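To illustrate the input format used throughout this study, we show a single complete record. The first block contains the structure-token representation of the backbone; no residue identities are included at this stage. The design step must infer an amino acid for every position from geometry alone.
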């Protein structure tokens, strides 16, 4: 599987253009950063988001990409803590109160999905 463009990504101010990370040790054009995504829709699309919406979408994408690994690590740490707490205290789900275990099961699935 091909690796994605290294983070952090950034949005070019006043545009919907998303750029990859700069590498100060790489003096090629790739090392100086390059555009990854432009939010402008094809001319034949029936719905065309406004420039403000495209800029907001670009900012949202960059925020999600740049925070993804930290969120995965934080979620894994929480799951590990709950698992350790259950093990140390020999806990089992209360038949009427399974919210915590259900949430941990969802978190584990999210972690599996984030690594594929």
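Output of the design step:
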């Amino acid at each position: 599987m091909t690796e994605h463009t290294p983070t952090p990504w950034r949005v070019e101010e006043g545009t919907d253009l998303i750029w990859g990370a700069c590498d100060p040790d790489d003096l090629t054009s790739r090392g100086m950063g390059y555009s990854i995504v432009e939010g402008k829709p094809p001319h034949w699309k029936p719905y065309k988001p406004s420039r403000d919406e495209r800029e907001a979408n670009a900012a949202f994408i960059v925020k999600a990409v740049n925070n993804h690994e930290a969120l995965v690590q934080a979620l894994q740490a929480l799951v590990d803590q709950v698992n350790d707490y259950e093990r140390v205290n020999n806990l089992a789900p209360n038949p009427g109160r399974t919210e915590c275990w259900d949430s941990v099961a969802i978190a584990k699935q999210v972690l599996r999905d984030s690594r594929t």
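Structural context for interpreting the output: The longest helix spans residues 51-88. The mean pLDDT is 82.
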